[in-house]
Each structure stands twice: as structure tokens, then as C-alpha cells.
């Protein structure tokens, strides 16, 4: 299980700071810091830093193997983020779907794509023991 006294940190590239801030704030992430070359967000309790590096943007992103996101332990929180993404008209890379239907690891998931083609996955497992 997660220790509550630790914060996970992830650094990713971005191509434009303003559009990056707009996307992540629409997603509900709080801007923590902004510098000339990066922005830092509170990403659902963890830290995501978007470094300005337009030359390292993946022009053809794929869901697997490179993405990041949140595994929700409460279905209501998953639904809330999904509904917010829809209402904010955030770009979906993959609409809501079911993976591993009928198996213990069955879960619902969707993917968003940020302005720098970073893929974000949001999912909820029906069996909470499958979250790890």
C-alpha cells in the first residue's frame, strides 16, 4: 500500500507551458510552481513536472508501454474525473472501455492525451486487491 508520507514524482516533456497549464488545470490539477522552463502540478496528490522540451515530443504516441495516470480506489472518483474530462472537452486518446472483462483484474479505463502527446490513463478495478 501507499505510504501517506511520500509523494511520487514524475517529469515529462512539454512543448508549450501555457497550453500545458490550461490542460492540467482543466483536469483539476493545481499549479504549484511555474518557471521559464517548467511547470509543477499537484497531480492527485503526487508531483508532475512538465519540462519545456519541444524537441522531445513523441509524434506518434501509443498507449503501451509509455503512459502514466491514476488508479482510483473509489468508483465515484473515477466517474468524477471522467465526467470532468468530458465537460472540459479534454482530448481523449481512448474512450472509456473495459479491460480483461470477466477476469479478476477487470477494470474500466480511459486515456487522455495532453498537448505534448503524453498519455494519461485513469482506471478503476472492481476488485480493489488488483490495484497493485
- Tally of individual helices: 2
Named CATH architecture: Roll
CATH fold type:
2,3-Dihydroxybiphenyl 1,2-Dioxygenase, domain 1
User: What is the CATH homology-level superfamily?
Assistant: 2,3-Dihydroxybiphenyl 1,2-Dioxygenase, domain 1
Q: Please, how many domains?
A: 1
Shape: globular
Give the distance, in angstroms, between the N- and C-terminal Cα atoms. Answer: 8 Å
Q: How would you write the strand order of the largest sheet?
A: 1-4-3-2
Average pLDDT for all residues: 95
Strand content: 35-45%
**SSE order, as H and E?**
EHEEEEHEEE
CATH class: Alpha Beta
Main sheet specs: 4 strands, mixed
Could you list the spans in which at least 5 consecutive residues all have pLDDT below 50? Answer: none
Can you count the beta strands? 8
Q: Radius of gyration, rounded?
A: 15 Å
Keywords: Dioxygenase, Oxidoreductase
InterPro entries: Glyas_Bleomycin-R_OHBP_Dase (IPR029068), Glyas_Fos-R_dOase_dom (IPR004360), VOC_core (IPR037523)
Domain VOC: 6-125
Protein name: Extradiol dioxygenase family protein
Amino acid at each position: 500500500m501507499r505510504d501517506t508520507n511520500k509523494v511520487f514524482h514524475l517529469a515529462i516533456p512539454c512543448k508549450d507551458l501555457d497550453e500545458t497549464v490550461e490542460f492540467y488545470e482543466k483536469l483539476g490539477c493545481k499549479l504549484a510552481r511555474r518557471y521559464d522552463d517548467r511547470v509543477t502540478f499537484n497531480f492527485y496528490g503526487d508531483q508532475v513536472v512538465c519540462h519545456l522540451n519541444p524537441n522531445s515530443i513523441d509524434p506518434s504516441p501509443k498507449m503501451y508501454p509509455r503512459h502514466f495516470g491514476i488508479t482510483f480506489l473509489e468508483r465515484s472518483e473515477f466517474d468524477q474525473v471522467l465526467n470532468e474530462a468530458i465537460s472540459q472537452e479534454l482530448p481523449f486518446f481512448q474512450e472509456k472501455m473495459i479491460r480483461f472483462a470477466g477476469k479478476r483484474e477487470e477494470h474500466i479505463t480511459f486515456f487522455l492525451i495532453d498537448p505534448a502527446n503524453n498519455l494519461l490513463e485513469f482506471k478503476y478495478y472492481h476488485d480493489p486487491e488488483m490495484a497493485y
